[in-house]
Design goal:
Elements lengths: L4 E5 L7 H12 L3 H12 L7 E6 L2 E9 L12 E7 L8 H15 L5 E5 L11 E7 L5 E7 L1
Parallel strand pairs: 4-5
Antiparallel strand pairs: 1-2, 2-3, 3-4, 5-7, 6-7
Helix pairs in contact: 1-2
Length: 150
């Protein structure tokens, strides 16, 4: 069966709001209500920081969001791409890259640049024009890498 994958903004598919919030919550163990609030703010134009999904025949198989701060002490490095996740059977197919490129382009179109990502991954975000910037202390006391995309 031919798969029909597409990258979408939750703003254009608000019918997926509840499912998307539940999906992200199940992946990151963050309360669904936190995702719902951010997504509703985006849909209502309270913020330009968006949420993006990869759908395969209307099934959510990947996604990411953009928020002010992804739980680290460097509040000046904002906004942050967060909650990047692709279902295991869909990995290594370019989905995360397409999600990142879509989010970065959308932010730039809205006059938001640069954008940051906090991660422990080394080598992944560099493929999508992110550059290591600095280390930061996270709210849980651990340290993570911050990358910038100009």
């Amino acid at each position: 069966m031919l798969k029909k994958r597409q990258i979408i903004s939750i703003k254009n598919r608000s019918d997926l709001l509840e499912n998307a919030a539940s999906w992200f919550s199940s992946k990151w163990n963050v309360p669904k209500e936190a995702y719902l609030k951010c997504m509703k703010d985006y849909i209502s134009n309270t913020t330009k920081l968006g949420w993006y999904l990869c759908l395969d025949n209307n099934k959510i198989v990947g996604g990411l969001g953009v928020i002010e701060n992804d739980f680290h002490e460097r509040k000046d490095l904002s906004p942050n791409i967060c909650a990047v996740y692709v279902e295991e059977e869909y990995r290594n197919k370019g989905i995360a890259g397409k999600l990142l490129n879509t989010a970065v382009a959308d932010l730039k179109n809205n006059g938001i640049n640069p954008v940051y990502v906090v991660t422990d991954h080394i080598g992944f975000y560099e493929r999508y024009e992110f550059t290591f910037l600095t280390m930061t202390k996270c709210e849980d006391g651990s340290f993570s890498r911050i990358y910038i995309h100009n």
